Amino acid sequence: MDLGIAGKYALVCGASKGLGFGCAQALVREGVHVLIVARGAEALEAAANKLIADSARPASASVQFVAADITTAEGRAAVFAVRKDFDIVVTNAGGPPPGDFRDWDRDAWIKAVDANMLTPIELIKATVDGMAARGFGRIVNITSSSVKSPIDVLGLSNGARSGLTGFVAGVARTKLAAQGVTLNNLLPGVFDTDRIKNMLQGTSEKTGQSVQSLAEARRKNIPAQRFGTPEEFGAICAFLCSVHAAYMTGQNVLADGGAYPGTY
C-alpha cells in the first residue's frame, strides 16, 4: 500500500532506539524526510547512519539528526533551528521510573508531567498551525497501554500520560480536523525494547528470579504469547501518518498483543 506521504517532513522524538527508531524507520521507508532527535549523540548518530544505509529507504528520503533534550525549551529550539515546519510529528519521551507513589516528591511529578505531557503539547503547539495552513498534518503521540489499564508501580506515567490523552481528545476535535490535521495516540503494550529489559532486570535483582523466567512469564500473560517488535510498532505509526488515516483523529490506538482485557 502506498501511504501517500513520500516527500513529507517528519520530526520523530526519542528515535535513537526502540519504538521511536521503529517509527523513524517506517517513515523513511515510505520516502519521508526524517529529522530524528534524542539526547545521546553517539547512539543517535548511529541510528541516523542505520536509517541512511537502510536498503528499503528511497534515495530521495533524507535523514537528519539533532542531539538534544526535547523536554527542554533549549532542546526544542535546537530542533526548530534546523527546520521549523513539519508535516508529521511523532512525540516520544522515555517513561518515568516505576516505584511507590509514597516516595515521589513534587519534583518527580513535575519531571514526569514535563516530559510526558507538557513536551508533546509544546510540540503540538509549535507545529499544528503550519500543518493546518498547508492542509495536511499528522501528530502521533507515543504514550502507553497504562492509559487504558493503569499499572500500579507506574503511577507517574499513568498520571502524566493520561493528562496528555485528555488534552489530545479535545484539541483533535477542533477545526484542525477539517483542515487536514489529525492527532492520535499510539499506546504500546510490552515491546522488545531497552525499557522492558531494564524493568525485568530490576525485578530480577529484587526477587532473585532470572530475567529469562520473568520474561517468559510476561509473554504467557499476552494472548499473542510474545513481545512486540519496534518494526511492527513503526508500521502502525506510519499508517496513522498516512493519507489513508485522514478520518481517524482523537483516537487511542492500542498495540499490546491482546493483553488489555476490556471490550472498549
From TrEMBL:
Classification via InterPro entries: NAD(P)-bd_dom_sf, SDR, SDR_fam
Spans through the membrane: none
Superkingdom, taxonomy of origin: Bacteria
Family statement drawn from the similarity comment of this UniProt entry: Belongs to the short-chain dehydrogenases/reductases (SDR) family.
PANTHER family documented for this protein: 3-OXOACYL-(ACYL-CARRIER-PROTEIN) REDUCTASE, NADPH-DEPENDENT REDUCTASE BACG
Protein name: SDR family oxidoreductase
Source organism of the structure: Polaromonas jejuensis
